[in-house]
C-alpha cells in the first residue's frame, strides 16, 4: 500500500472545517464559539459550537487529530487483527440542529485512520458521509441532498452512490424502533481500495460537497412559519436522534472508548428533546406523512 500522507489529510480537514464554519456563520448571522482542546494521551482538536443562534438552536463542527497506543474495539470492528496497534485518527464531524422544525437536522463526517505496528506496514483507511434528518418531509429537499451526494461520488465510479446510499440506509437505522433515522444520504467506511491518493480525493469530494448539499435546503426552510405543535413534534423526533447516537453510532463509541473529550463527542446532542410512551401521530397529518413517505428506504433520484 502507499504510505499515508497524514500531513496532507490534516491540512485538508482543518481547511474544510474553516470553510464550513464560515458558510454556516453567514447563514446564521452569529459567530461560532471556538474551543481548542488537548488530549493527554496524544493529540487534540478544535470544536466550533453555536447555541441559541438565529437559525441554529445548537450545532457543532469539530476537528480532531488524536493518537493512541491501543486501537479501540469500535475502530477495529471490521479489522479485528489490528486490535491493540498504535493508531492515529483525524476527522471533521458536524451536526446541526436548526430551531425551525421545517429545517432538517444534518450530520456530516469525514475521517482517516492509520494503524501502525513496529516491523509491519501501516494500515490506513478513510470513512465518512452525510445524512439528512427532516422532521417535516419535502421530496425536493431529499432529492437535492441525494443528488449532490451522487455527484460528489460520480468521478470515482457510477456504482459508488448506490452502494454508499444503501450502506447509509442500513447504518442509520434504529433497529429497536424498526425505522430509519431520516432520509439517509451516503456512508462509507474502511475505504482503501485504489490507493491513498484516490481514496483521499474521494474523501475531499464528499467533504467539499456538504455546503452545496445542505445550505439550499436550509435557506428554503429556515423562515417557514411554525407553532407549538411543530416544535413539540420536532422535540419528540429528536429523541430518535439521541437514541441512535448513544446506542449505535461508531463515532460516538470510538470517542468515548478512546478517552476523547466528552463535550466535543456529545456536541451532536440536540438541546430540547421529548420522549412519550407509545405515541402515534394523528392519521393523515403531516407528522404521519413523515413516517409513511420519508422514514422508509426509497430511491430519491
Automatic annotation (TrEMBL):
**Region span, Important for dimerization:** 241-276
The protein's matches in InterPro entries, at most eight in alphabetical order, are given as:
Coprogen_oxidase_aer, Coprogen_oxidase_aer_sf, Coprogen_oxidase_CS
Q: What is its EC number?
A: 1.3.3.3
Q: Where in the cell is it found?
A: Cytoplasm
Cellular component (GO) terms are: cytoplasm
Keyword Nucleotide-binding: yes or no?
A: no
Q: Where does a divalent metal cation bind?
A: 97, 107, 146, 176
Gene designation per UniProt:
hemF
Annotated GO biological process: protoporphyrinogen IX biosynthetic process
Protein name, entry field: Oxygen-dependent coproporphyrinogen-III oxidase
The protein's annotated catalytic reaction(s) are: coproporphyrinogen III + O2 + 2 H(+) = protoporphyrinogen IX + 2 CO2 + 2 H2O
Any Pfam family matching the protein: Coprogen_oxidas
Amino acid at each position: 500500500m502507499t504510505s499515508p500522507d497524514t500531513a496532507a489529510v490534516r491540512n485538508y480537514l482543518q481547511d474544510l472545517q474553516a470553510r464550513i464554519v464560515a458558510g454556516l456563520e453567514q447563514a446564521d448571522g452569529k459567530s461560532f464559539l471556538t474551543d481548542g482542546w488537548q488530549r493527554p494521551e496524544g493529540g487534540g482538536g478544535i470544536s466550533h459550537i453555536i447555541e441559541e443562534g438565529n437559525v441554529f438552536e445548537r450545532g457543532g463542527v469539530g476537528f480532531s487529530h488524536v493518537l493512541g497506543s491501543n486501537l479501540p474495539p469500535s475502530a477495529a470492528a471490521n479489522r479485528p487483527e489490528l486490535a491493540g496497534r498504535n493508531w492515529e485518527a483525524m476527522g471533521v464531524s458536524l451536526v446541526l440542529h436548526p430551531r425551525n422544525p421545517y429545517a432538517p437536522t444534518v450530520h456530516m463526517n469525514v475521517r482517516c485512520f492509520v494503524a501502525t505496528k513496529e516491523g509491519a506496514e501501516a494500515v490506513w483507511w478513510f470513512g465518512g458521509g452525510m445524512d439528512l434528518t427532516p422532521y417535516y418531509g419535502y421530496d425536493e429537499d431529499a432529492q437535492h441532498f441525494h443528488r449532490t451526494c451522487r455527484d460528489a461520488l460520480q468521478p470515482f465510479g457510477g456504482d459508488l452512490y448506490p452502494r454508499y446510499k444503501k450502506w447509509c440506509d442500513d447504518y442509520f437505522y434504529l433497529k429497536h424502533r424498526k425505522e430509519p433515522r431520516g432520509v439517509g444520504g451516503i456512508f462509507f467506511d474502511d475505504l482503501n481500495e485504489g490507493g491513498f491518493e484516490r481514496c483521499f480525493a474521494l474523501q475531499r469530494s464528499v467533504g467539499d460537497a456538504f455546503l452545496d448539499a445542505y445550505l439550499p435546503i436550509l435557506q428554503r426552510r429556515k423562515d417557514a412559519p411554525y407553532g407549538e405543535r411543530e416544535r413539540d413534534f420536532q422535540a419528540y423526533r429528536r429523541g430518535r436522534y439521541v437514541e441512535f447516537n448513544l446506542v449505535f453510532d461508531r463515532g460516538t463509541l470510538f470517542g468515548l472508548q478512546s478517552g476523547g473529550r466528552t463535550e466535543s463527542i456529545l456536541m451532536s446532542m440536540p438541546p430540547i428533546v421529548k420522549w412519550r410512551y407509545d405515541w402515534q401521530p394523528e392519521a393523515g397529518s403531516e407528522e404521519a406523512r413523515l413516517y409513511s413517505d420519508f422514514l422508509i428506504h426509497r430511491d430519491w433520484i
